[in-house]
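Posting for a labmate who doesn't have an account.
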Amino acid sequence: MEQELTLLELNRKVKDTLARDFPDNYWVIAEISEMKVNRKGHCYLDLVEKDEMGDRIIAKARGMVWSYTFRMLKPYFENATGQEFKAGLKIMVHVRVEFHELYGYSLHIADIEPSYTLGEMARTRMETIRKLEQEGIIHMNKQLTLSEVPQKIAVISSQTAAGYKDFMEQLHNNPYGYVFYPKLFPAYMQGDQAESSIIDVLEDIYQYEHIFDLVAIIRGGGAQADLSCFDHYTLAAHVAQFPLPVISGIGHEKDESVVDLVVHTKLKTPTAVADFLVNRGYQFEERLLSARDQIVQNTSRFIQTEHQRQQNLSGRIVPNINALIERTQTRLERKAEKLTHLNQLFIQSQHQHLRDYSARMSNKSQRVLQNANWELNHMERNFPHIVEIYIQNKNKHLSNLEQAKKHLDPKNVLKRGFSITQKGGQTITSAQQAEPGDTLTTRLYEGSIQSTVQKNNGG
């Protein structure tokens, strides 16, 4: 029969076996999935390993760092890597395998190798850059045209950051008095929420892209760990594909993030961004002033040249004009003499025409008067006879009308045997106008007859 063990006895056997088989410390590579520091300063970690795709956890162990060790390891790691010691990092740690009867299996961390994390960070950064290049978007923002004088600026920054205040001070108090219209879109510029916060702000600015000339992403300096979000692919891809030129001023001289690589113009600090905008306005003004001076010079030379040309022309034209005037005056005098002679001939001719016409009109008037007198005498002799014939014709016409009236008189018609039938005082001409029972009055040449309709035979 197999030996029976209590759980404590079994756990002690496991502890002894692990202590015997794993007596040394080991360098282990893992990713921090969770991390917590308790009030005593002890750090507790969940260490994991994922598959090659980075989606599935294939190994997991608890790790812990005693407070006195953690107080030394954390600043050592952060100073060496420029990264905050936090969840999400891949690390190489020197561990001792331990098993506690009550708490189970864990890894006791005694040391850490920052160079591994630095190498991993560099590898991840290069993978991000390579992915942006493969997708053909790494230079998209650089290809946009920046306004000659950008004045309407969408600013992404923390409202309370000293870098933002320096930027605004430098922009508004520039020595040339240029006017700018910056609009702040507040965002977290460090920490776990920085990437999503900046992306959300970019989406907000996109809604008003027609208003702004460019986007300025600015923040003051800080630890390298504070700049880690600017190396992430998602943020860099958003900036690279943004439809407005993006200017960055997010670190110190030695810092260059992936976002710095994809923006239109990379500058080191918020103050440098403000100086860039002011200097761009100054350069544009200088070009305008230079163009103005060039135009003035060219115009002056043109005026001088034209003035000299006019003087030269004047020297040649004045004598020619005087000669032309003399020749023209001579021709006009000759034409005036000729016109005077022609006018006299015309007037004489018209006087003769008027005399001839007057004589013809006098002879014609005498003939017209003679003819009119003859016609009046003729009418005067024949007028009584014409009037008599006219009266005879009218009397004959009246006699004919009188005779027709007699023939058409109703009494004469009735006298020939005709009658007139009436109903209700109205003359009827058709049997259909009378109904049985109607009373009719028939007028004859002598008297009238009243009758009652018995039957209507009308068709």
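Reply:
Got it, the structure tokens are right above this. Residues 148 and 284 are 7 Å apart (CA to CA).
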